[in-house]
Amino acid sequence: MVFTQLLFLLAGILGLSQVIAASRDCVVRPLGQGKDDTDQVEAAIAQCGHSGTTTFQPGTYNITRKMTWDLHSAKVDLHGFLSFIPDIEFWLNPDNTFRVVFIQSQASWFVITGSDFEIDAHNTGGVQGNGQVWWDFFTNHTREDGDGRPIAFTLNNVTNGVVRNFRIESQPFWCNTVSHSRNVVYDGMYCNASNSNPKFFGQNIVPNTDGINTYVSDNVTLLNWDITCGDDCLAVKGNTTNLFVRNVTCHGGNGIAFGSLGQYANLSDIVENVHMEDLKMVRIDKNIQPNMGNAVYFKTWTGSVNGQPPTGGGGGTGRVHNVTIQNVVYDQVNEPLHMYQTNGGHSQDLPSTLMYSDLTFSNWSGTFLTNTVVDIECSPAVGCDDITFNNFTFTSLSAGALKFICKNVENLTGLNATCN
Ligand SMILES: *[C@@H]1O[C@H](CO)[C@@H](O)[C@H](O)[C@H]1NC(C)=O
Ligand SMILES: *[C@@H]1O[C@H](CO)[C@@H](O)[C@H](O)[C@H]1NC(C)=O
Ligand SMILES: *[C@@H]1O[C@H](CO)[C@@H](O)[C@H](O)[C@H]1NC(C)=O
Ligand SMILES: *[C@@H]1O[C@H](CO)[C@@H](O)[C@H](O)[C@H]1NC(C)=O
Ligand SMILES: *[C@@H]1O[C@H](CO)[C@@H](O)[C@H](O)[C@H]1NC(C)=O
Ligand SMILES: *[C@@H]1O[C@H](CO)[C@@H](O)[C@H](O)[C@H]1NC(C)=O
Ligand SMILES: *[C@@H]1O[C@H](CO)[C@@H](O)[C@H](O)[C@H]1NC(C)=O
Ligand SMILES: *[C@@H]1O[C@H](CO)[C@@H](O)[C@H](O)[C@H]1NC(C)=O
Ligand SMILES: *[C@@H]1O[C@H](CO)[C@@H](O)[C@H](O)[C@H]1NC(C)=O
Ligand SMILES: *[C@@H]1O[C@H](CO)[C@@H](O)[C@H](O)[C@H]1NC(C)=O
Ligand SMILES: *[C@@H]1O[C@H](CO)[C@@H](O)[C@H](O)[C@H]1NC(C)=O
Ligand SMILES: *[C@@H]1O[C@H](CO)[C@@H](O)[C@H](O)[C@H]1NC(C)=O
């Protein structure tokens, strides 16, 4: 007891967090086919998740219920996959998931909280989502936001967390979410939602498999991401500030989204100080994923309230300000850049009061399938201000005159065409 206190005191004085971090070590091995690993996984994290190191040996860990890892001054080496049982009715029972992600009341089966930790999955481990059975199931069941389909990997209430070389196979729904967190680095993230059931070839049966949704989080860094999905590759949602993104490849889906914003009439969504660079959008085999929407797009709800979240909403205030997106290469997207403020709305709605300003798009090039190069439709209530293009080039793969659409935009510069 005395010795331990002395050790902690010394460590505190000398700033030797390593002394503490090295004080506990847990090693876990998969129990094998037919066995349930959840108890031993939770026990290891309970024992070594505070000031310790937990090592998961390679292999598959059978996870049969919701799980939170509370990590403080801890390291996790995850060499294998946490495989979440493909029992849809079980997970859809609200008691069997967490609802820590406020927006759209989304469900999570695996939540990380805490501070000063690193999870390294060494490109050989992560989460196995067993998504195919989910995607098949929802081809003939109603699918809505907040319906309980679980997020594969959630970071909530994290400070100073690092996730490295992590793989998520077959996410049933959103792949990642970071919410109510700050100072988080994801370096190396792979998500892949690819239908392999020939019955559904040529259809997007993997909607809502977003690479990540960022929400109410400050100073998040995303490096070296590789996302295959049928929805938003990245979705920057309300109160994401100081976001840095570098080297992201999106295979299929909608592209990189800012939004949807303004869904909650009682909340403002502030997105500020975002820098993204080295982005690549690639259209893939249309049998696997028919969509490749935009390189980047921005969307808000209207100024009217149309129903309640999670499925309805609107009327929220806020702004998107100081965003730079540079070095973008896109391949056969529908439209390189789209901005609109009418998500979930009707023609007679009040216009959104959420304003886009100080946006810079530099060094873009690639091919697109339509004639519309940019479609910037800002709210008549507030307009957009200061949109700058530098070295913004494009090749249309369809015949006909190119269109540059701008509505309610002030101070747009650098586009090699008249935008109207
Ligand atoms: C996972 O554990 C459950 C509960 O014990 C068991 O029924 C199931 O067969 C196991 N799954 C695998 C793939 O081992
Ligand atoms: C967030 O985590 C801290 C500890 O890191 C804890 O004290 C606090 O209660 C948590 N907040 C919420 C809302 O869970
Ligand atoms: C729903 O789709 C699944 C997967 O394709 C199929 O096995 C099942 O028979 C369908 N059920 C109904 C009621 O159509
Ligand atoms: C942002 O997060 C990084 C990585 O955790 C950290 O090194 C940096 O100090 C943070 N910046 C601020 C202003 O807190
Ligand atoms: C995604 O998974 C599919 C099916 O397993 C595979 O064919 C494809 O190569 C994977 N994509 C990437 C980018 O690894
Ligand atoms: C970009 O990220 C991919 C993984 O998604 C990685 O293989 C590649 O080396 C990274 N490129 C650079 C220049 O870091
Ligand atoms: C905002 O409204 C939502 C319902 O739309 C409610 O759940 C939430 O508690 C409200 N938040 C605040 C801060 O009033
Ligand atoms: C975003 O931050 C603002 C100002 O701090 C706050 O009023 C608003 O409720 C926050 N919005 C969300 C979605 O948390
Ligand atoms: C704009 O955002 C960048 C980070 O992307 C930041 O470095 C810069 O200080 C911000 N500019 C202003 C005026 O706040
Ligand atoms: C223009 O952008 C492309 C990438 O889209 C890049 O390869 C090229 O170097 C840029 N040119 C200049 C002058 O920056
Ligand atoms: C457009 O930019 C000019 C010069 O910076 C500025 O004076 C003007 O107020 C801006 N327009 C709007 C609507 O902000
Ligand atoms: C504008 O774009 C066209 C076609 O890409 C090109 O031929 C022309 O030189 C460009 N003009 C300027 C001023 O950059």
UniProtKB/TrEMBL annotation:
<dbReference type="InterPro" id="IPR012334">
    <property type="entry name" value="Pectin_lyas_fold"/>
</dbReference>
<dbReference type="GO" id="GO:0047911">
    <property type="term" value="F:galacturan 1,4-alpha-galacturonidase activity"/>
</dbReference>
<feature type="signal peptide">
    <location>
        <begin position="1"/>
        <end position="22"/>
    </location>
</feature>
<keyword id="KW-1015">Disulfide bond</keyword>
<dbReference type="GO" id="GO:0005576">
    <property type="term" value="C:extracellular region"/>
</dbReference>
<dbReference type="GO" id="GO:0071555">
    <property type="term" value="P:cell wall organization"/>
</dbReference>
<dbReference type="GO" id="GO:0000272">
    <property type="term" value="P:polysaccharide catabolic process"/>
</dbReference>
<comment type="function">
    <text>Specific in hydrolyzing the terminal glycosidic bond of polygalacturonic acid and oligogalacturonates.</text>
</comment>
<keyword id="KW-0732">Signal</keyword>
<dbReference type="Pfam" id="PF00295">
    <property type="entry name" value="Glyco_hydro_28"/>
</dbReference>
<dbReference type="GO" id="GO:0004650">
    <property type="term" value="F:polygalacturonase activity"/>
</dbReference>
<keyword id="KW-0326">Glycosidase</keyword>
<keyword id="KW-0624">Polysaccharide degradation</keyword>
<keyword id="KW-0119">Carbohydrate metabolism</keyword>
<keyword id="KW-0964">Secreted</keyword>
<keyword id="KW-0378">Hydrolase</keyword>
<comment type="similarity">
    <text>Belongs to the glycosyl hydrolase 28 family.</text>
</comment>
<keyword id="KW-0961">Cell wall biogenesis/degradation</keyword>
<protein>
    <recommendedName>
        <fullName>galacturonan 1,4-alpha-galacturonidase</fullName>
        <ecNumber>3.2.1.67</ecNumber>
    </recommendedName>
</protein>
<keyword id="KW-0325">Glycoprotein</keyword>
<dbReference type="InterPro" id="IPR011050">
    <property type="entry name" value="Pectin_lyase_fold/virulence"/>
</dbReference>
<dbReference type="InterPro" id="IPR000743">
    <property type="entry name" value="Glyco_hydro_28"/>
</dbReference>
